[in-house]
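User: Structure please.
Assistant: Input sequence and predicted structure:
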Amino acid sequence: MNTAAEVLTVIKLNTKHEETWRYDGRVLERDEHSVLIEARFNRSDFPFHGILLRENDRFVERYYADRWYNIFAIHDKDDDWLKGWYCNVTQPAEFTPGRITYVDLALDLLAYPDGSCLVLDEDEFEDLQLDQATRGKARQALDQLVELAKTGGLIQVTG
């Protein structure tokens, strides 16, 4: 199968399994446990913790069926300059024909090209009605993402 022409719909769900965002992306590669896609940011321009997110910025996104996170490399729409990585702590993604679906657990990591990081939405995460096992897996996923950011591993998973 030629994945280069394959388009998938990404569906982000909250913990109540309600859809909160939907967009399409083009498959760049896939393996047994992950899919790498390219998508365009589909919201109006806005500043976000020192990064200007612009409509049609290029996102290269890695989703995992066996990990509790996904990773988005954010590239400027004009010159493809790497702005940083946005990492979502999530339940493992579900891959079905034509779709990637994931449940977002609110906790996020924003990593900058200079190696610095910012943990986001800890208050929202604490307010979620989650069992202790899920909380533990989410915290472990955040620790793994911080380690990837510190060691340069984020660029390896997003190309």
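The mean pLDDT is 95.
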